[in-house]
Amino acid sequence: MGVQIVTTQTIKCKNCGSDAVVRFGSYKGVPRYYCKSCNRKFKADADAFHGKIPSEYVSSAVNMYYTGMSINEIRSHLKQEHGYYPSKSVVWGWVEKYTNQAVKQFKDYHPQVGDIWVADETMLDVDGQHKLWFYDIIDTKTRYLLASRVAISRTTNDAESLMSEASKVAGKNPKQVITDSNYSYLDGIEKAYGSDTEHVQGNPFQPKDSGESTSQIERFHGTLKDRTKVIRSFRDFETLKQFTDGWLVYYNYFKPHESLDGKTPAESAHVQYAVKNWADLAHLPITKQAEIKTHKVSLFPKPKKLKIPLDNAFNRKRKPRLGKPHLTKYGALTRRVDR
């Protein structure tokens, strides 16, 4: 008679890693567990505990959003592939939730970048009526997007804030910054880095080996514009800011580059990270209380409508109504006027 070997797998908490776990029933055939260490419940599969929709639906929708598909195209794709047709608000909720989670996940990483950075700015459309400036700065060696900033105008303070944020992420100051001839960089770079950093004014038409070319960041702007033209315009300032923050994470950590031999800028900058895509991010444990609720604040408030006083509302003159034309006894054509 053969020997039967039975193997058991130790269940560890998905939230804290503790093995002080007990069975807590099941739902639709999926076991659930309770952790005595952190007092939280979790499922034995890769889906979120509070999620009613499979995580692969959500992660693919967010990935399609940042790769250039519109919300309606994402909904149609989910319907064709999975037979699930979510509303626009549901898809926007997924994008908002995991964009905030991605920004929080990668905010403390520090890449190993080079000493030459290139900065530029472009215009993005907001609410179909206003234009905002989008500042960004990347490392020429690793293509890592160090910082981005949305501003109403191009001022020295905006350029200085961009440079300071990039220095904070990199953990050092660059030896050289290449920009266009925008005047805001003249004092902004010096105020942020001092006289030790050389400021080179170039343009995208200079050869790459000249040390004065801004073609790398212009190519990045082309990739960004290809994505934003699908959106056409953003609802408000906060929506645009959230998108640019999420785009920074997507560009640095999830999007491979041909010029980097298929690596992401973060991998090229020797950043060690386990979350390689939106699917990995969706599998991270998160509670309802931990979900960030973004408060939408419009940068361009709509003018208030003038309210008619109550007295005038009842005393306004009514427009006369014209009755059907009829003949008078004298044969003249006239209209009866009702008031």
Describe this structure in words.
The protein has 339 residues and is an alpha+beta fold. Among the domains are: 7-45, no CATH class; 116-272, Nucleotidyltransferase, domain 5 (2-Layer Sandwich), CATH 3.30.420.10. Helices cover 35% and strands 19% of the residues. The protein has helices spanning 55-67, 71-82, 88-106, 156-170, 184-193, 215-231, 237-254, 265-268, 278-282, 310-315; strands spanning 21-27, 30-35, 41-43, 116-126, 130-139, 145-151, 176-179, 198-201, 321-327, 333-338. It has a 5-stranded mixed β-sheet with strand order 6-5-4-7-8, sandwiched between helices. A 3-stranded antiparallel β-sheet has the order 1-2-3, with no helix packed on it. Helix 1 (55-67) packs across helix 3, helix 3 packs across helix 7 (237-254) and helix 4 crosses helix 5. The longest helix has 19 residues, at 88-106. The chain is globular. 26% of the residues are buried. Mean pLDDT is 78; it is low at 290-317.
